[in-house]
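[Meeting: bench + compute handoff]

Bench side (C.D.) handed over the final construct sequence. Compute side (W.E.) agreed to return the predicted structure before the next meeting so the bench team could plan truncations. Sequence as handed over:
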Amino acid sequence: MSLQLWTNARVATQAAGAGAPYGLIEDGAVAVEDGRIAWVGARRDLPLALDDAAVEHDAQGGLLTPGLIDCHTHLVYAGDRAAEFEARLNGASYEEIARAGGGIVATVRATRAADEESLFAQSRRRLRSLLAEGVTTVEIKSGYGLSQEQEAKCLRVARRLGASEGVTVRTTFLGAHALPPEFSGRPDDYIDEVCRMLPALHAQGLVDAVDAFCERIGFSPAQTRRVFEAARALGLPVKLHAEQLSDSEGAALAASFGALSCDHLEWLSEAGARAMARSGSVAVLLPGAFYFLRETRVPPIALLRQHGVPLAVATDCNPGTSPCTSLLLMLNMACTLFRLTPEEAWAGVTRHAARALGLHDRGALAPGLRADFVLWDAQHPAELCQALGSNPRRTTVIEGRIA
């Protein structure tokens, strides 16, 4: 690929320790070669050799940021759960709906009934909505199949989506998401099955990481530990749905396995935060689920800051608790509902989101990193946190190529 130069931009590098907030460079330039960033800095400092680039793109004063990273989604599914939304508005709780056979299991029924092509078509629409807002990397969890055949189907669809749309898709096996009907009353037997499924799915190249739902309506810490031990035996990293509805001490458990991330965390304790800090696990905040479920207990942001736990932000795109395909909206909600600063929120959808996926080649604009970036009709990153229902994306570049 020939050398490319993007000039006349306000460049928010999002690089850690960059000095200026957001790593912002006025009148900046970015040089790209072979899908990687070759140079970034102020235009006045551009090396003469790079100034002779074969292709130059004029950003016309727009804002250039790293590509957005949605590090927690469940976007491969079939059906909808609008009736449950109505039931919650009439007073039913999420736990009551789940225990009555709704919730995750309702989506499992619909997803099992869908053939692979139908599932791919439905899921592609959701992914394209994310991409239209500048997302260049996305994590997709399974967990709506809950059998080896059906989990494989969902993970294959996730892989196909990445290939079809030209974006990085990281797949996470979430077999321990809920108890399928055929294992009713036998959660330990089902965990045996999950641990049996994992090596087979991994051998097919379908699994990048392993997740579980450690909660009163999910799986116990002891059951979660068994899943994580199976993942560790295969050399797979783990992450966890932790402390969403209660403090199950899941974050500390996940941290003991060096988890990439612990997600939700509304009921996180100080012990859990300390454990995450020691292990380097990222706190993935999911304001869409908090909003949609009308929760009132906010994740302990001050505690996480105090212990230096990195904060990521994601959509949690799923049919039941966060039917959202707008990471830009999550930027706003992270600020308004969780009181993150706009700079924290931006780090949460770029470099900290990359870390939550175990990816070290993206999430910032720096030499050697992947040339994934977005040009916006904006002057400052805070504008994208402040706006509601706005999408000022002008151009997305993925691995040096205009998408």
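W.E. noted at the follow-up: The two ends are 15 Å apart (CA to CA). C.D. will use this when planning the next construct.
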